[in-house]
Amino acid sequence: MNMTKFVLLLALLTAFPPLATDMYLPAIPFLVKVWNRPLAIVNLTLVLFFVTYCISLLIYGPLSDRFGRKPPLIFGLLLFIVASLLCAFSGTISMLIGARVLQGMGAGAASSISMAMARDRLESGVRERVLSQVSVIMAIAPMVSPLLGSIILQYSSWAWIFICQGVLGGVALLGVMMTPESHPGKKAEPASLLLQSYGRILANYRLMGIVACNAVTALPLFSFIAGSSSIYITTFQMKETLFALFFGANACCFMAGSMTCMRFGKKIGTLRMVTAGYTGVALGGLLMLLGLWDGSWQFALPMGLITFSLGLSRPPSNNLALEQVRQDAGTASSTMVFSYFLCGALAMLVVSLEWPNKINYMAILATCSGLFSLVLWLFLKKHVWLASHR
Fold first, then answer.
1. Count of beta carbons in the 10 Å neighbourhood of residue 171
2. Does residue 190 lie in a domain region?
């Protein structure tokens, strides 16, 4: 498989979480009314998806180190396809929640193993550029997915949203089956020894420090994912299609940050991009809290700065994290993605509560998470850089 096809496959696999959530977001207010359930209950289809998704990450990583990347990845994609069809045929909120749990288990394979595949096949300098390209392509998913979901709702049933997700899972499965194995596995080792890899990962303070920085910055992003439909559609009385455009514009900001990283990364420097990214998250939260704009722009403009900053910092920080390990790449990848999406799931759960002002809550969350990550990163960056260039 040539480099272009490999990058496209990595982007599709990495995009499974936004594909499985953002396409479904326009249907949430609709299901609240149709099934007459509170938003906190319907949002369990988001929260529990990410909880099971996170747990499965811890399993797929070591399995891919032991048996190779492709077998657990193929199993996860098959599970995702079947679960997507079960979602489509759900008749109650309980059935949909259960099917989404299975869908999260399947999606975990795609995210964790795709990062390990990048570590297997690419050298450090090439990997940072490829991860930037993947981020740019991946940003298209949250731009297009809500719009596609709103169009499906306008002309057909919400069930077709999940049928489309199953089709995308089939495309990814075909691509994986055509891709050569990037890691032969370690079948001679007993499974119990592989659990020791988590001990080595957790003892690596440089890696875990970067993991913590990235995980905390997931809080404002995922609270936006879970709360944006309620804020835009219910609070600001937007139509579903206009909400999709606002949501897509926010994703465009993420893509712009990734493109900046890809185009000017060498000139700016890895460490400066990460520092600027964490600073931007905190600054966006402060601007949102100050409320310098009226109406929906009070929310949209600062959130654009936050997602731009995340797009700028995610590729170099992920690459630096992978540089901290010489073995256990699958376990390290799983730990990174697990921590990120676990914080995201917690943010989704909390934002679904009956806050008097969701925008102020998200502003405080962004400010605190950005400042925490910035302070921790300033302590770590010298140690991380030296370790990466031994």
1. 12
2. no
Domain boundaries, position 53: 3-184+195-388
| Residue 189: inside a domain | no
Residue 67 falls within a domain, yes or no? yes
151-170 burial, b at 16+ Cβ within 10 Å, e below that, comes to ebbeeeebbebbbbbbebbe
183: left (phi over 0), alpha (psi -120 to 50) or beta: beta
**Contact between 279 and 243 (Cβ < 8 Å):** no
Indicate the Cα dihedral angle 64, 123, 377, 359, nearest 10°.
-70
The sign one gets for the Cα dihedral 215, 217, 227, 337 is negative
Each residue's pLDDT, cut to its tens digit, for the chain (390 residues) gives 567 787 788 888 877 777 787 788 788 888 888 888 887 788 888 888 878 888 887 788 778 777 788 888 899 999 999 999 999 999 889 999 999 999 999 988 887 787 778 777 777 667 767 777 776 666 677 667 777 888 888 888 888 999 999 998 999 899 888 887 777 766 555 556 666 777 888 888 888 999 999 999 989 988 888 788 788 888 888 887 788 788 878 888 988 888 888 788 778 888 889 999 999 999 999 999 998 888 888 899 999 999 999 989 888 888 888 777 777 776 787 788 788 878 887 888 788 777 888 889 899 999 999 999 999 999 888 766 555 555
- The answer to whether residue 380 sits within a structural domain is yes
pTM: 0.70
What is the total count of domains within the chain? Answer: 1
| Helices within the chain (DSSP H only) | 3-14, 16-22, 27-34, 39-42, 44-67, 70-88, 93-121, 124-138, 140-155, 159-177, 191-194, 196-203, 205-216, 218-229, 240-268, 270-290, 297-323, 329-351, 358-388
